[in-house]
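[Q] Does anyone have a clean structure-token version of this?
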Amino acid sequence: MGNYIAESLNTLNEANKMPYPSFPEAMGILGMYTGTVSTGSFTGTGAALDVTLAFNPVAVMIINPTNAQALIQTKSMTAKASFKIAAAIAMATEGITLGVNKFSVSTDDTNGNGNTIHYIAIGQG
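[A] Here you go.
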């Protein structure tokens, strides 16, 4: 999973000339983070589903390597209006909602039925 995240960030940097951090920089930032971080996987359903956590998330990223898409949601964003990384970068209208000890994934095609979806959830320190 780490290689996919690294490739995604590096591709975004090169294609869009945007100031996204490199993968080592992003991991360095996480290494200094004192909150809770959880990683895992679930099977996509194509329908809305909840992923239970042991903490309240402030940011979540899900990655579907099957269709090469990712969604990012932070606490300050409107529910389901997730940042989507795919062939084109856009805002999803049916993305992720952060909740109490969970996050919910809506019907966006990143939640592909039968696909293995990887996630990184970050809680406040």
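[Q] Thanks! Anything notable?
[A] Confidence is low (pLDDT under 50) at residues 15-21.
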